């Protein structure tokens, strides 16, 4: 005759074996080091950010964007309360041999471990259809958007700047105006 104690022991034995077999897997998974950030925005640091003060329809935002992951990220645009549109722009050769400003087709790709400078006369973030002038000393918050839909805030101070003598005029880079500049 079997006692309830021996039946209980036999019923617990398969559970103990199952636990013994799965414990190493659980510990390995919990202790594994997956340093890959969850989103593209998590992979990015932004430093030295600033915005060109302007009383025109457009202005540029600049800084340094570092991709700290080992996978490519794509900066595609953004949003801000000071402008209707935020686009990523570049300076590129025009058909006549001059350089023209235009929206980066497909977004600005930043390879894993690479740093990209956003600067006047080069790659930059365009704030288009400004809702009000941006004055020197003002703080501007831009929510940058990445290829996977993730976002990261960039807070920048506006400053007067005439350095590259770039002129941000309506129609430059706008995909809905038909302009190539």
From TrEMBL:
SUPFAM superfamilies: DR1885-like metal-binding protein (SSF110087)
Annotated stretches, region: Disordered: 162-181
Keywords (A to Z) from UniProt: Signal
InterPro entries for this protein: LpqE-like (IPR007410), Lxx211020-like (IPR058248), PCuAC_sf (IPR036182)
Keyword hit for Signal: yes
Coiled-coil residue spans: none
Signal peptide start and end residues: 1-32
Amino acid composition bias (Polar residues), ranges on this chain: 172-181
Pfam families assigned: PCuAC (PF04314)
Name of the protein this chain belongs to: Copper chaperone PCu(A)C
Organismal lineage: Bacteria, Bacillati, Actinomycetota, Actinomycetes, Mycobacteriales
């Amino acid at each position: 005759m079997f006692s309830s104690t021996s039946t209980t022991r036999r019923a617990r034995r398969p559970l103990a074996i199952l636990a013994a077999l799965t414990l190493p897997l659980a510990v390995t998974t919990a202790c594994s080091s997956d340093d890959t950030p969850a989103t593209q925005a998590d992979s990015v640091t932004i430093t030295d950010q600033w915005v060109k003060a302007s009383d025109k329809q457009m202005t540029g935002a600049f800084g340094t964007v570092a991709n700290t992951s080992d996978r490519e990220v794509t900066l595609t645009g953004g949003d801000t309360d000071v402008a209707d549109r935020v686009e990523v722009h570049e300076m590129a050769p025009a058909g006549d041999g001059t350089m023209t400003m235009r929206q980066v087709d497909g977004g600005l790709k930043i390879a894993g471990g690479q740093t990209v400078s956003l600067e006047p006369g080069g790659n930059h973030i365009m704030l288009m259809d400004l809702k009000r002038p941006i004055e020197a000393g003002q703080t501007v918050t831009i929510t940058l958007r990445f290829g996977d839909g993730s976002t990261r805030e960039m807070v920048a101070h506006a400053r007067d700047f005439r350095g590259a003598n770039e002129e941000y005029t309506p129609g430059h880079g706008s995909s809905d105006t038909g302009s190539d500049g």
